[in-house]
Prior knowledge:
By secondary structure, this protein is an alpha+beta fold. The protein has three domains: 4-265, no CATH class; 284-423, 3-Layer(aba) Sandwich (Protein Transport Mog1p, Chain A), CATH 3.40.1000; 430-479, Membrane-bound Lytic Murein Transglycosylase D, Chain A (Roll). Helices cover 44% and strands 20% of the residues. It has helices at residues 4-17, 35-52, 59-73, 107-110, 116-131, 134-156, 159-195, 201-222, 233-236, 242-252, 264-271, 339-347, 401-412, 419-424, 441-445, 454-461, and strands spanning 19-21, 28-30, 84-88, 95-98, 102-106, 275-276, 284-286, 289-292, 297-300, 306-309, 314-317, 323-331, 353-360, 363-370, 376-383, 386-394, 428-434, 475-479. Strands 10-11-12-16-15-14-13 form a seven-stranded antiparallel beta sheet. The chain has a three-stranded mixed beta sheet with strand order 3-5-4. 34% of the residues are buried. Residues 1-18 and 140-176 have low confidence and may be disordered.
Amino acid sequence: MIFRPLLVFVLAGLVLGGCAANPVTGKQNFVMMSEAQEMALGQQASEQIAQQMSMLKDPKLQAYVQRIGTQLANKSHRSGIPYQFNVVDSPDINAFALPGGHIYINRGLLIYLNSEAQMAAVLGHEIGHVTARHGVRQQSIAMGTGLIGQLITIGTGMPAAGDLSNMLGTAMVRGYGRDMELEADGLGAEYLARTGYRPEAVLDVIGALKNQDTYSSQKAAAQGKQVESYHGLFSTHPTHDQRLQQVVAQAQGLTTGDAQRVGRDDYLQMLDGMIYGDSPEQGIVRGQRFLHTELNMVLDYPKGWVILNRPDVLLAHTPDEQGFIALTMENLSNTNVSAEELLRARVGKQRLTQDLAFSGTGYKGFTATIPGDNARRVAAIVRGKQAFLFIGAFRGRGPLELYDEQFVQTIRSFRPLTAADKKNAQPMRIRLVRARQGDTYAKLAKGSPLGDEAEARLRLLNAQWPEGQPKAGQWLKVVR
């Protein structure tokens, strides 16, 4: 007990010593790093992002996004830091910001926007996270509560106290999320107004993304799946939210002149030809088949299995999400290693049973099972300097035989692409067309590669979901 006054004194010093003025509000916020440290943290994180994510190879579009983002950043509360805007080659509908001004927007989000003003609203929102130092503040809270937990544990001799403080710290971080997102929306609207855009573009974006989220959620629910959506208030708050309406209204008072930038046609022209969905660099999913032109490989998955193509792993699971098979790839320095030698090296001292060597055009493979309560199917395929490593597993405890035959079928389906495969592996692309008199989305959907989803997806792409129809002369996004 005699240590508690000292503990309180130390905690007070920690909190007071970690305060700094918010660049936006001027109020004192709890932070534990300088601006120089923030820049270093953002640079380090951006280098990791570069290793994990591919940037879109479209210099014209990248320059366009950088130009609009820079214009907004120049009107922000932290115009002196170097902002870098990047388009990520991902079909996911998302955007995010790192400390220090590194901002990313996925092409999957860009194609669902319909004007330069809407893109500016997303970029402005992410700039708001940087100017208000949201990433730094959350990092500081996490660091601070961890240190506080350690001090409480030392001062009281009660490990539970440290655990409790960590729980509270986690709650504080999560609790900040809602307010920070609203603050970023307000700042984004303010930067839009100062740059000559309609602040209401924030609401337009929220409405479009909310429609996309609703449609995807309905579709996922019908299939018994979960859906990932864009972070923040853009996905969780309705456009009629009172606080959101207030921050947008406040920004409207900052607009100058009658002419406000929209940039619909210019923006849509930038999207013409953009890949929709998977890209060849990441591999293409067509039904139950995965095709990768650069790796010259094809895999076939059992009917009903869900294929998830991620930058670091190709994952597939059974409809009930109980069985999983994952594929990773690596480059070999020793081209003389056999598939069996490689697999045994990767599993270490674990025992292998039911081993089987197999081969195909240009490659050799080896597969086996790791027995036990959590038995797994593993395999390696070696082709020149390329190695493809598989692991199949299931949730909980149970016989591997429930899924093993399907695991083996998937692994043994590995083969190089045929001429027909290469044609099928061509990506879908956004194309612009002028709506003609009498056009409907049902007509435009006929023959679309989007299949049964075509009519709904075309409405979503053109901000006319769920029942809108095109107007004659209007530029429309279609998928071909």
